[in-house]
Amino acid sequence: MTTYYRPVPRSDAPRPENALPLAGGPLWFSEVVALARNGNAEHISPSDVPPETLDRLTAPRAPIAGLDMTRPTLMGILNVTPDSFSDGGRYTDVANAEAQARAMVEAGAGLIDIGGESTRPGAETVDVAEEIRRVSAPIAAVSKLGMPVSIDTRKAPVAKAAVAAGAVIVNDVAGFTYDADLAPLCASHQTPVCVMHAQGDPQTMQDAPQYEDVRFDVYDFLEERVSYLESLGLSRSQIMIDPGIGFGKTIDHNLALLRDLSLYHGIGCPILLGASRKKFIGVLSGADIADTRMPGSVAVALHAARQGVQVIRVHDVLETRQALALWRAIDLGDT
Length: 335
Fold this sequence. Notes:
The protein is α/β, with parallel strands linked by helices and 335 residues long.
C-alpha cells in the first residue's frame, strides 16, 4: 500500500536543531504525518521518511522565470474573456488589460497570468483562432512592463502564439491532457509550465465529482504528469503543480486539499494555488457575488503561505500582499 507523507509546517521560534527546511524556504518541520488510503495516519520523524521523498520535501526550489521560490509570489489574474466568472468582459480591450496589469504589478504581483478562455463551470470551449486573437496583444503589452507573463491555456497553438508574444510560462488547467501537442511544444522550447489537476472539463466538471480519496488521487495524477513532462525533457525545477481547487471538486474536496496542502511538496516541485473568489468561498462565507469574496480569498491565501505554497494566484493583489507582509513580519520576523 502506498504511503503519502505530509510534513507539518512550522514557523515559530526557537527552531529545533533537528528541524528541516520545507522546500528550502523559511518554514520548517520536525514532524511528518504518514497517510494511507485505508485511513491510517501516523506521526513519524522525518528520519523515517524514505530518502528520495525527504529530499523532495526539503530541497530548495530553483527560480522559475526569475521568480524567487523561497517566498510566496503573487500571480495576478488577468482574464481577457467576455465570460469569466469574476471579471469577464472588463479587460477585453488591450488598453484596459495593460492598465490592470500595471495596477497589479504596482500592488505587488510578481507574475501576471493571462487567459483567453474561461474555465468556469459550464464554460464553452473557445475556438483556437479566437483565443489567440484575445491573448496575443495583451501579452505583448504586459511583457513590455518587465513582468513575467504566463499563458493560461490548454491548447498548443495558443501557447505557441503566446510564447512568441512574450509569455514565459504555460499554465494548463487540464494538466497537459487536453492537447497532446502542448507538452512536447513546451519541452522543445524549454518553457516552464504549471500542471493542474482537473476532473472532467469546464462544461461538466461540477456535475458530480467523485474520488476514492481526493488528496491522494490528485497527488497521484500530478506525480504521473510531472514524470511524463520529465520524460519529454523538462526538469522538476521547471514545473509547478496545482491541485486545482474548484475544478471538479465539491466543497469537501476543496477543504480536504487545503488542509493537506503540504503533502504536495513531496512531488518536489513548487506549488501554485488558485482559489481566489471561487464559489466554495462564497458558500462558506455567505458572499454570493464573486467580487465580494476578497476577505475569504485572503484567508485562503494566508493558509497557503503557512503551508509553504510558492505561488498564489489572486484577483486581489494589494489586499493579499498586505496580509502576507503582516504574516511574514509577525511569524518570520521579516520586515
